[in-house]
Each structure stands twice: as structure tokens, then as C-alpha cells.
Design brief:
Layout (H helix, E strand, L loop, with lengths): L1 E7 L2 E6 L9 E10 L2 H7 L10 E2 L3 E8 L6 E4 L2 E2 L5 H4 L10 E2 L11 E5 L3 E3 L6 H4 L2 H15 L10 E5 L3 H12 L4 E5 L3 H9 L3 E3 L11 E6 L4 H10 E9 L11 H6 L3 E4 L5 H13 L8 E5 L3 H10 L6 E5 L1
Parallel strand pairs: 11-12, 11-14, 12-13, 14-15, 15-16, 17-18
Antiparallel strand pairs: 1-2, 1-4, 3-5, 3-9, 3-18, 5-6, 6-10, 7-8
Helix pairs in contact: 4-5, 4-9
Organism: Halomonas cerina
GO molecular function: alcohol dehydrogenase (NAD+) activity; metal ion binding
Protein name: Alcohol dehydrogenase
Length: 328
């Protein structure tokens, strides 16, 4: 089969490789669509010591089971492979599993014509959901998980809040679309890339360039930082009102210092959210299938053979797409 390998910092190679033998309790999935995640770009730059080359990256995927217990079924997948036995798994917080591994990190990922994955990671898809839309399940579930965590920290319904989303990449854009679907009336997205701002505007969301317009201090009840950089953390803390909440979803860097004095004096809830639970993923499949997030025309598709070029375009900011999906 063909697979796109990460072979070293900023180096990708399309290779012919043998399919991995099936282990007990696993299925083989023929990949029909697989998205490029920000964490894949992080690894591409050589900044993720957990992803060691040579490695097939990719963990946002949809396809058809061609071998295994669900043969013939259309599926998406939970890329987190959990033990099912630790306290976190038993309490429904599988994303925090003490023994978790992950496709595209500790084993071959989805930038290939097929992969193997444990059966418990597979989620059947409705016939009405296309493979490209289904490949958005993983990033959309990340946004959903963050929204639900923040929602529990507010004293008033989220729909009544003024909300700032920082970053108009896939998770930021999906968070914005979900917040609108939940009835949030005052919502703005900040991004420095004019192409991404245009994409978000075409999806019906209000945007601005934070280099030209700094949000007024203490102006919003909720902030979703979908970048996770020193500058965006500073912006979030300054913009949130006393008693508000910040959801930190991005992982761009761990630099700078956090204004804990302001967080304390303003009694801000500063929260993190890591990926999603199995329940989040299933709820996201239903949400995508409902069409509640729009026509998803902002997704760009390319062939797997064009994967290296797609990475280069994403790094250089040459594409307006908030998500590029590869088609093996």
C-alpha cells in the first residue's frame, strides 16, 4: 500500500509499504479521507518527541472496514487506544487514560491507504455522512469537549455570554460554528491570517485581526484559546470579564508567563481540555450528520500523493482552508 511517511524534520516521503498484520481484537480500515491536524504539523517540524521518524502520521480519519469484526461497515475512529481498566477509563474519562497510546504517534497512522486499529476504537457512520465530513469528527469532538467543559464553569447559560474565539483554524472554526448552533449571539473570531478570516466570514462568523484591533479589557464572559501561545494567553486573560472562563485548547507553545494575579483577582476559571471522550465522538458524528454546522465548504481535499505539498502550503499560510483532508 501507499503511505505518507514522516522521515525527519520537515521531510515527508510517499512510500510503498507492507500492510501491518492484524492482531486479535483489531480491524483493518481502508482509509477514504484523513485530515491534517495541527499536531501533525507540530511533528512535521520535529517539535514532538513522542512522534519518532520514520512514522505514518495522521489520526483524523474515516473509511470502510475491510477485515475484522465490522467488515463492510463505514466507520470513523477514536485515535486514542485506551486500556479500559484504569480509574479514568472506568469513570468515562478515557481521554485521560493512564496507559493510552495513539495512532499516528505510537503506531502507524491514517496517512495511508489502510491501517489497523482495535475494534473498540471504531464508530459506525450513518449512510448520509460523507467520508470527508466524517473525517472532521476528531477535531470537532475536541471543540465540543472544550465547549462542554467551559459551559459548566459559567454562572449563566453560554448562549447569553459574549464569546471570543482566538484562532480560526479547524478547531477554532468548528468551535465558532458549534457556539452559533448553541445560540451564542455575540461571538467573534480572532486570527492573523486573512485567508482564514475570509473562510470564517464565508461560514457566517464575525472575525477580526488582533494585530489591528485588541479586544477591550474585561469585555467577554468566555474565551476559547484555540492557538495556545504566549500572546493569545495574554489576550484571553485581558479580554475576559471577572467571573468569566477561559478554555485553553491550543498547544502552540509553553512560553511566557500567565498573569495569575489577574486570574485570581478577577476570579477567572482557567481550564484545559484534552481531546474528547467516546461519548463526545458519537455525539459529534450525530451533529455533523444533522448538517447543523453548515455545508463544510471550507474543507479542502487533496490526494494523498499531494500530502507533502499540502503540508508546505499549510506551513506557509498559502491556503484559506481551515482543514485540508487527504484522499488516499
Amino acid at each position: 500500500m501507499q503511505a505518507l511517511y514522516y522521515v525527519g524534520p520537515e521531510q515527508l516521503e510517499l512510500r510503498e509499504t507492507e500492510e501491518v498484520p492484524l492482531a486479535e481484537g483489531e480491524s483493518r480500515v481502508r482509509i477514504q479521507a484523513t485530515g491534517i491536524c495541527g499536531s501533525d504539523l507540530h511533528a512535521f517540524h520535529g517539535h514532538d518527541p513522542r512522534r519518532q521518524p520514520p512514522l505514518i502520521l495522521g489520526h483524523e480519519a474515516a473509511g470502510e472496514v475491510v477485515e475484522g469484526a465490522l467488515a463492510g461497515k463505514r466507520v470513523t475512529m477514536n485515535p486514542l487506544i485506551v486500556c479500559g481498566r484504569c480509574d479514568y477509563c472506568l469513570s468515562g474519562r478515557q481521554n485521560l487514560c493512564s496507559n493510552r497510546t495513539m495512532i499516528g504517534m505510537t503506531r502507524a497512522g491514517s496517512f495511508a491507504e489502510s491501517l489497523t486499529i482495535p475494534d473498540h476504537c471504531l464508530i459506525e457512520l450513518p449512510e448520509t455522512l460523507s467520508p470527508v465530513a466524517a473525517a472532521l469528527t476528531e477535531p470537532a469532538a475536541t471543540a465540543l469537549h472544550g465547549i462542554q467543559r467551559l459551559e459548566r464553569s459559567l454562572s449563566r447559560p453560554l448562549a447569553e455570554a459574549r464569546v471570543l474565539v482566538i484562532g480560526a483554524g479547524a478547531i477554532g472554526l468548528l468551535a465558532g460554528l458549534m457556539l452559533r448552533q448553541r445560540g451564542v449571539r455575540t461571538l467573534r473570531l480572532a486570527d492573523t491570517n486573512p485567508l482564514r478570516r475570509q473562510t470564517a466570514q464565508e461560514a457566517g462568523l464575525e472575525t477580526f485581526d488582533p494585530r489591528d484591533h485588541i479586544p477591550p479589557e474585561a469585555s467577554v464572559e468566555a474565551v476559547f484559546d484555540c492557538v495556545g501561545a504566549a500572546a493569545t494567553r495574554d489576550m484571553a486573560v485581558a479580554a475576559v470579564r471577572p467571573g468569566g472562563a477561559i478554555m485553553h485548547l491550543g498547544l502552540q507553545d509553553n512560553e511566557g508567563s500567565l498573569d495569575v494575579r489577574a486570574i485570581t483577582l478577577k476570579e477567572i476559571a482557567f481550564l484545559g481540555a484534552y481531546t474528547y471522550t467516546a461519548t463526545d465522538l458519537r455525539a459529534t458524528v450525530e451533529l455533523l450528520d444533522s448538517g447543523a454546522l453548515g455545508d463544510l465548504s471550507w474543507v479542502e481535499t487533496r490526494r494523498l500523493q499531494e500530502g507533502a505539498e499540502a503540508f508546505a502550503d499549510l506551513v506557509a499560510g498559502r491556503t484559506a482552508a481551515a482543514k485540508v483532508v487527504l484522499l488516499p
